Amino acid sequence: MDSLEQIQQSISEEFDIFDTWMEKYEYIIDLGKKLEAFPNDQMTDENKVHGCQSSVWFTTSIENGLFRCKATSDSAIVSGLIALLLRIYDNQSPSEILETEPKFISMIGLNEHLSPTRNNGLNLMIARIKKDAGTMI
User: Of 11, 28, 52, 108, which one is the catalytic site residue?
Assistant: First the structure.
């Protein structure tokens, strides 16, 4: 199992192959299309990430000591951001999640190229992951 740092570095290297932000956005959207189906019965207010511009639902659990999460959104770009977050945080130790900063955001330039509302939503999703991971230690 790769560490969170290794996964973030790998994502950064993937994004380095693209020349323009339009290509990066297209790649993010393609990642979102590959998300695992999210059960409709889990699209509840309790699982909703409030404050996001788009509708986002998250479920988290602990399995064999590892943090597990599933999520979905009604937005193509946000679904892609979710795919990145799941790649980084799903199936990791809760303590490593709490200890590791989400450096991939600046590594690939999301902090400079997402709209303020999308950036806020990304930060809310990361805060939700860290909060839930903190309850599982």
Answer: 52
